[in-house]
Write a structure and sequence with these properties.
By secondary structure, this protein is mainly alpha-helical. It has 2 helices and no strands.
């Protein structure tokens, strides 16, 4: 009877040790899987943020290009006005009209 109890006890101890070892291995696998998933989430988050930044940069670039185009149109219109005014001054070339004073911007 004592021998049977010893064998049952040894078998129970073996089962408990096996269960403890398997539990530790499962914990290590779960921790590794968690670390892998965490890394993937961080990588995906970085990708999403980079995509958002790229989209924002493209939107800002498009808006800026529109502003540059509008400013170029304004510059062209102003150049046309200057040309028109210069033409009017040339046609109206009144010799009694004094030129610019020397200190105000005449040739030095």
């Amino acid at each position: 009877m004592l021998f049977r109890d010893w064998r049952a006890q040894a078998y129970t101890r073996h089962l408990m040790e096996t269960e403890a070892r398997m539990s530790r291995e499962a914990w290590v696998r779960a921790t590794d899987a968690s670390d892998i998933v965490h890394g993937e989430v961080i990588s995906l988050r970085t990708t999403v943020l980079d995509h958002r930044r790229s989209t924002e940069i493209l939107e800002l670039r498009t808006a800026l290009q529109g502003q540059v185009t509008a400013l170029q149109g304004q510059v062209t219109a102003l150049q046309a006005q200057v040309t028109t005014l210069q033409g009017q001054q040339g046609l109206a070339g009144d010799p009694t009209q004094p030129g610019l004073p020397e200190e105000a911007g005449g040739s030095a």
